[in-house]
Structure formats: structure tokens, C-alpha cells
Amino acid sequence: MKDALFGGVNAAVLTAMKPDMSPDLDRMAAHAHWLLANGCNGLGILGTTGEAASFGLAERKQILEGLIARGIPAGVIMPGTGTANFTDTVELIQHARAQGCRGVLVLPPFYYKAPSDDGLFAYFSEVITRTGGGIAIYLYHFPQQSAVPFSLDLIGRLLKAFPGAVRGVKDSSGVYANMKAMVDAFAKDGFEVYSGSDEFLQTILADGGAGCITAASNTNSHWGGIVYAKRTGPEADAAQAVLNATRKAATSVALIPGLREIIARSTGDDGWRTIRPPHLKLEKAQADAVWAAFQAAGAIPLPGLGVKAAAE
């Protein structure tokens, strides 16, 4: 897809934390720089993988500002700004715009279950109107987590009512038929569809999607970058196979602590295991298993990162 603001591989970035569980901006920025140097075109911060719901508004602003202050270009950052109410959501979107971000990822209001499309349309109408424009809205379709899906009809209504405001969607449903339906219905008008699942990257690019925003890109972005650059052919196919294997490995345990374990072992930095409750660190058997699975996938050592630690 041409002219996609975040076209390509975007990592749903882990949020580094200090021992007291406050944001560790130096560690997180170093990881973000590594991602941009190893296959990532953009960075989705403070999404599900970034544990956004575990951070307050002031902390979320601090994280975005801290990354930019440490040299991460605002233009490559897509912050998650969705909350359960539209006033906080608007505040976070306006803050992201003020920092120079080009787009934000917005969950639906997720506390009240089974809202109607009319109710969701009214909610997003408030968000878009109160935000005042100047930044692209990306919808976050993750019904397994939010329990509030975006229907094709709702997306179509928003695009018609607010032309240019809603720029795309991250589909983390894991259902490729739904991603394809969004591409078929809206991509011709410039609507950017991003897979939240690594295994669909090559397919969605071929079908006219914009790329991916994935958790496992924290560890497999090198191979995602190859798929995005090559698209087809033996090298792209081999890289996609690594994406498939690493995604399977990452989801064989609790995803967020599992990815933290891989980064911790790859860097030799135990600080990456720090996580906010209700998430917990992996038990040793699980940690050993996910590390072995990444090794079997051919992903260890991670290119340019932690060769010494990986060899131990």
C-alpha cells in the first residue's frame, strides 16, 4: 500500500521498568533504537504488549515524552491512547499530537460489554470531534481482549462521517478473513490495515494491506523487515517461516513475560523481567521452554543483540 503512514513492520513495544515498576526510559529507548535499526519501520508503544492499561495518564505521557527526548523520532511512534472513557482518550491523543506523533491507536471503550454500533459510533464521534484533527486515528480491533469488536459497518460509517480522520486499523483478532474483508472494503480508499499477527505479514502485504503491528516484533523484527522488503521469493519465504515459528514460540507461554524473558536472556539484562501485576514473571521451566523454542526457530542469537548472552 502506497502512502501508509506506518507502512511496514511495527513493534508493539515492551515497556521497560525499574525495580520499583516505574518506567525505565533509558532501557526502553535503547530497545526502541535497536528495533528501528533491525527491521522496524515504526513503533507502537503503550498497547497491550506495552501494558498500557497498567499505567496512569501521567505515566503514559512521561513514557512518550521520554522516548522522544532520547532520540526516538515522534513520527515513527504510534502511541496507544484508548481508555474506557472519551475524556482521557482525547487528552492522550491531543498530547501525542502535541509531541509530533502522526497517528495513535485507539481501543474501543472496553468496560461496558456488547455496546451497539450506534453507541460506538457516538463514542468515536466524541473522540474525533473533541480531538480537533491533526492526527490520524487507528482503530484497535482486539475482541479477545476488549470484548468490543469493530464491525465493517461501523468502520464504514466512521469513514463516511469523518473523512480523513480514521486512517486505519490494527486487527489482532487472529482471523485473517476479517483482515482481508477490511482490506477489500476500504483499502482502495487509502485505509491502512495492519495485522496484529506475524504469521499473516506476507499474505496481507500481497492482498493490499499496510503491514503489521505485533508483539513478537520485539524479537523477530529482523525477519519481518526482510519480508516487507522482499515480499516474495525464497528469502522472503524463509523469513516468513521464522516469523511463524517465533510467533508460535512466543504464544506458547504468557506472551508479555515470555517476550521479556527472550530480551532479558538476549541482552543479559535481568531488568527486562520486571513486570507490573497482574502479570507475573515466568517460572523457570516456562522460561527455559520459550528460550529453547526461539533457538529452535533459528532466531537466537537475535541479530545485533546479545550474542554473548545467547551463546551461554
For the record, what CATH class applies? Alpha Beta
At the third CATH level, what is the topology name? TIM Barrel
Percent of residues in helices comes to 40-55%
The helix/strand class is alpha/beta
Q: What's the assembly state of these chains?
A: single chain
Question: Largest sheet, described in full?
Answer: 8 strands, parallel
Average residue pLDDT:
96
Overall number of structural domains:
1
Order of helices and strands: EHEHEHEHEHHEHEHEHHHHH
CA-based gyration radius: 18 Å
Identify the overall geometry: globular
The CA-CA distance between the termini, in Å, is 42 Å
Strand fraction: 5-15%
Number of strands: 8
- In CATH, the architecture is Alpha-Beta Barrel
Family: Belongs to the DapA family.
Organism: Paeniroseomonas aquatica
Keywords: Lyase
GO molecular function, one term: 4-hydroxy-tetrahydrodipicolinate synthase activity
Summarize the structure in words.
The chain has one domain: Aldolase class I (TIM Barrel). Helix content is 48%, strand content 12%. The chain contains 13 helices and eight strands. Helix 2 links the parallel strand 2 and strand 3. Helix 3 packs parallel to helix 4 and helix 10 packs antiparallel against helix 12. The protein is globular. Keywords: Lyase. GO terms for molecular function: 4-hydroxy-tetrahydrodipicolinate synthase activity; 5-dehydro-4-deoxyglucarate dehydratase activity; N-acetylneuraminate lyase activity. InterPro entries: Aldolase_TIM, DapA-like.
